[in-house]
Design a protein that fits this description.
The complex is a heterodimer. By secondary structure, chain A is mainly β. Helix content of chain A is about 0%, strand content about 60%. In chain A, strands 2, 4, 5, 9, 10 and 11 form a six-stranded mixed sheet that branches. In chain A, a hairpin with a 4-residue loop joins strand 7 and strand 8. Chain A is globular and about 45 Å long. The chains are: A mainly beta, B mainly beta. The interface between A and B is medium-sized, with 22 and 22 residues.
């Protein structure tokens, strides 16, 4: 069935360093890959997304890359700040079913 | 424009009790979803709807029922609550693809004793 694996489960970096979170997906029909940020006790909020016809997308300090051949995509956060501390979720949507399948989440801690 | 709202925010049930969670959106979205979030397991889709009067099963539908009588509302029902249903429940809505960003509600924390 459809599956999304996310690594690492926890990530601790110093303020100013970069953070990278990686996801792999199983359904080759997936065509939409959003990333959500969830602060403690809050709802998930979309921070960036990428579609299957694009290899990379950037928005200020965050970027996402997609390798369709290898079926993996990654989130890159540069110049991390304490307010980047949160749980990050990747997801993949199959063009066949239309459903979003989420990864297990990565808890990012940015130390001042 | 409130976006996606959920009622109630918190609830404690005893095993065997029933309840309904209400999700409402004011963005005229066609699609609505119910997820549950458990520690270390991400968000798992329970049921979803692609339009008024339609519902479909997600990854973990057992023990839940849903209804979409009005476009703006999506109800999640637990007929006989079990401790395994203790979780945080999120509702989300989206337009049709390709403009299909999912917007989440604030969540409902449910505890079943």
């Amino acid at each position: 069935g459809e599956n999304v694996e996310q690594h690492p489960s926890t990530l601790s970096v110093q303020e100013g360093d970069s953070a990278v979170i990686k996801c792999t997906y199983s359904d080759s029909a997936s065509n939409y890959f959003p990333w959500y940020k969830q602060e403690l006790g809050k709802r998930p909020q979309l921070i960036i997304d990428i579609r299957s016809n694009v290899g990379e997308k950037k928005d200020q300090r965050i970027a996402v890359t997609l390798n369709k051949t290898a079926k993996h995509f990654s989130l890159h956060i540069t110049e991390t700040q304490p307010e980047d501390s949160a749980v990050y979720f990747c997801a993949a949507r199959s063009s066949n079913t239309g459903k979003l399948i989420f990864g297990q989440g990565t808890t990012l801690q940015v130390k001042p | 424009n409130a976006g996606v709202t959920q009622t109630p925010k918190f609830r404690v049930l005893k095993t065997g009790q029933s309840m309904t969670l209400l999700c409402a959106q004011d963005m005229n979205h066609e699609y609505m979803y119910w997820y549950r979030q458990d520690p270390g397991m991400g968000l798992r889709l329970i049921h979803y709807s692609v339009g008024e009067g339609t519902t479909a099963k997600g990854e973990v539908p057992d023990g839940y029922n849903v209804s979409r009588l009005k476009k703006q509302n999506f109800l999640l029902g637990l007929e006989s609550a079990a401790p395994s249903q203790t979780s945080v429940y999120f509702c989300a809505s989206s337009s049709r693809p390709p403009t299909d960003t999912q917007y989440f509600g604030p969540g409902t924390r449910l505890t079943v004793l």
